[in-house]
Amino acid sequence: MPGGRGRGNMRGNPNRLGPYNRGRGGGRGGHFSGPGRNSVFIPFAPFDLEHCAVQFPKVTSNEFDSQVGEMILERNKKITLSEEDSEIMSKIYEEISEVLGSFYTEPTEMSRLKVKHRSKQEDPQSIDDIRTVGAFANETLIDGVKELEMLITLRNPMKIDEFGEFSDKLTSALPTYTISSSEEFASIKVESLNGFRAHCFITCSGNKIKTSGESHLQKRIMYKNFDMGKRAKWFSENCVDPNIRLLARILSDFRVRFEGFRGMSQWAVELMAHYSMSSFDESGNQSIMPVPSALKRALMLLSSGFFLPGSAGIRDPAERDGRSVHQGFSKLDMDNICCAAQTLLRILMQGGGRKVFGLEDSAGLLDEMQVIDDVVIQPSIQCYVHVEEVTPDPPAVAEAPAPVKMEA
């Protein structure tokens, strides 16, 4: 019938826009979005040679991988945290934990009866858990870094007034340490006389964070600190192989030595090490790759734009919305990471591994031209240019002309 909903690909009046025009390229089932529909952004997956091992067989010799492996082990011995520094940090953690444990005591039976009919916000405050998080807990901390991270999980959300009192009590209980606090990040830094620091982050359980109000610390910061505990738990459960920690230390060393990698967070470095070391066969079975192959894979992925805008990257397992770990990086940092990885990969594959791993002088390695075996290697140049948006001045309002006097 004319104007009716006919059968087939074109339903109804083909000249009519709206829900009846659902043919090819129309709405549901078509190739393109119909009128008024929002497009869906689909991130791209950078080229990964490990996923195409059959189509691209290996051509480098095993001797090259063995040489790279020896250099990695040699560098790992130099950057691994010394036992002396590890013991000092452990003592600082134990001392702070003991002091924090004395701040709040478990409520007695009499106090429980007194607060039985009170609201949940009036429950007595206490500490549910104190643990180390970050690189020190994951055993990826490198030598020369004298800071450990601690997570203090309270029973109830902390009020802004309580945060200042909490910091003052910690200062009184630790007179030999320098204490500084930041309400903006809900954190307290404890620094010893010999330069070792403990960065304490405050949070509470996820369900209790929802109940916090304007008088409490910011929800956003409490959730951010809460995710630090989730990351430490995920790493301890999924990164059991010690070679993953070894590769994470090597990448952390790159992050310290080369300015181009400083835009990466420590958590991104650890996830990159886990991703690069993991290999899956056609049946979905996971295996651990050799460290030299995993390092080359990491540099290849970063060189191909793994952490560039629009890339799928690595999904952050601690984030509730499943976002990629590099979405918090600035565009300039993303560009610098890609350029640094491209230059290091060219130098490494040409035989300059000792400079790449810091076993020889590597000053200006990413900024100056390198000549290795008569081969000239130019460093990659950043392509991102930050353009500041200039707000145009409002147009000037023309003054009205003075009235003309009419003479008789």
TrEMBL record:
InterPro entries: DZF_dom (IPR006561), DZF_dom_C (IPR049402), DZF_dom_N (IPR049401), ILF2 (IPR052134), NT_sf (IPR043519). Keywords: Activator, DNA-binding, Nucleus, Transcription, Transcription regulation. It comes from the Eukaryota. Residues 37-408 form the DZF domain. GO terms for cellular component: catalytic step 2 spliceosome. GO terms for molecular function: DNA binding; double-stranded RNA binding. Its main location: nucleus. Residues 1-34 are annotated as: Disordered. It is found in: Nucleus. GO terms for biological process: positive regulation of DNA-templated transcription. Pfam families: DZF_C, DZF_N. Residues 10-22 have a biased composition (Low complexity). Residues 23-33 have a biased composition (Gly residues). PANTHER family: INTERLEUKIN ENHANCER-BINDING FACTOR, INTERLEUKIN ENHANCER-BINDING FACTOR 2. This is DZF domain-containing protein. It comes from Oikopleura dioica (Tunicate).
